[in-house]
Specification:
The protein is α+β, with helices and mostly antiparallel strands. It is 21% helix and 34% strand.
Length: 362
């Protein structure tokens, strides 16, 4: 029995605090990120839906491609509609190796009607340093169609953009950002002084004195001597440590959709609120006056307008203070207003200084 109680006590002591989050979910190591790749290429094999003759650069690209393959042709003699110039984009993971496959996105550059069913010709993909890191080629999948005639047409999704799953092969690897370093830096996804301090404290509790805070967005971590030759094992232990992320009190309002999202720390001081709507109804019922038969009179239209103004009788309501998100919601629901009216009320409460949170309008 004592053994069971001791085991339960150990589990309670070692349990993560409520709302704890792994470091890997709120931060990333400096340099460990994706890199954008881009390239210019041609999609061939289209069924007459390629670029027209008015688009000059696809024809020039086709002539240059044929010359590299040993075919000499006059540019003025090339008139095809089964070729489209495209821009090819992809993301290169931080530790991608030669031979790994990447998904690529193909987007039309000219006036092609559709690139569905086409094949992307071999296209080098370059990074920001103008170096080739991958080569893309394959059949384009658009999950769309576009058909039409002289009188009507039908289109589904976007036939001028598509994807090639696994259509690029990595040819050049990125430098390993972990090798040869004795210090690592953790960058928080959302900068916050409290969260940065908690991350450093959690690391120092597991590895004594190995972490220090630089600012609200980063934490510097030293690699212990015993992990100098195996930094991956050290990082794996760091990113699985759990901390409680601190977030500022914030109310996000979307006026277009009437959506309101409140954070956990939102509080409202005691405040009195009165909100009413004014309804105005205008009704036009013109009356036509016609002359008697065989008379010399004219038909006259007599305007007749009816106005009705109705204002809701809203009393002044005392909104009680709220220390939790549940209390705040219950207090706002006492006003009996719609979400769009609630947006105006929240703006007014913020202007009065009673809303103890940041109001973000998107």
């Amino acid at each position: 029995m004592r053994t069971i109680l001791a085991a339960l006590a150990l589990l309670i002591c070692c349990a993560a605090p409520a709302g704890a989050t792994r470091i890997k979910d709120i931060a990333a190591f400096n340099g460990v990120r994706d890199n954008q790749l881009v390239g210019y290429g041609l999609v061939v094999g289209l069924n007459g839906t390629g670029d027209s003759d008015q688009t000059k650069f696809p024809v020039q690209s086709l002539v240059n491609m044929l010359e590299r393959m040993g075919v000499t042709i006059n540019r003025l003699d090339v008139k095809v509609k089964n070729v489209a110039a495209v821009m090819v984009t992809a993301s290169l993971p931080p530790f991608a190796k030669q031979g790994n496959k990447l998904d690529v996105t193909v987007s039309s550059l000219g006036d092609a009607k559709s690139i569905a069913g086409g094949t992307l010709f071999m296209t080098p993909l370059k990074g920001a340093d103008n170096q080739v890191y991958a080569v893309a080629q394959g059949s384009v999948l658009t999950n769309s169609f576009a058909f039409g005639g002289q009188g009507a047409s039908v289109t589904k999704n976007f036939p001028t953009a598509g994807r090639i799953p696994g259509g690029a092969l990595v040819e050049r690897e990125l430098p390993n950002v972990l090798s040869g370093h004795s210090t690592l830096r953790l960058n928080l996804a959302q900068e916050d002084f409290t969260t940065a301090s908690r991350v450093a404290a959690a690391i120092n509790k597991r590895f004594n004195g190995m972490a220090a805070t630089n600012d609200a967005a980063s934490v510097t971590v030293q690699i212990p001597p015993e992990y100098a030759n195996r930094p991956v094992d050290y990082i794996a232990q760091l990113e699985n440590l759990e901390v409680v992320q601190d977030v500022p009190a914030r109310v996000v309002v979307n006026e277009r959709t009437g959506t309101i999202v409140m954070g956990e720390g939102v509080q409202i001081a005691p405040v009195a609120v009165s909100h009413g709507n004014l309804a105005l109804t205008i009704k036009e019922t013109p009356k036509v006056s016609q002359p008697a038969p065989l008379s010399t009179g004219t038909t006259t239209v007599v305007p007749r307008t009816t106005l009705k103004v109705q204002e809701e009788q809203k009393r002044l309501s005392l909104l009680p203070p709220g220390n939790t998100i549940g209390e705040v919601v219950r207090g706002l629901n006492q006003l009996g207003v719609t979400p769009r009216d609630l947006i105006s009320i929240l703006q007014a409460i913020k202007a009065a200084g009673a809303l103890q949170a940041e109001l973000v309008i998107i």
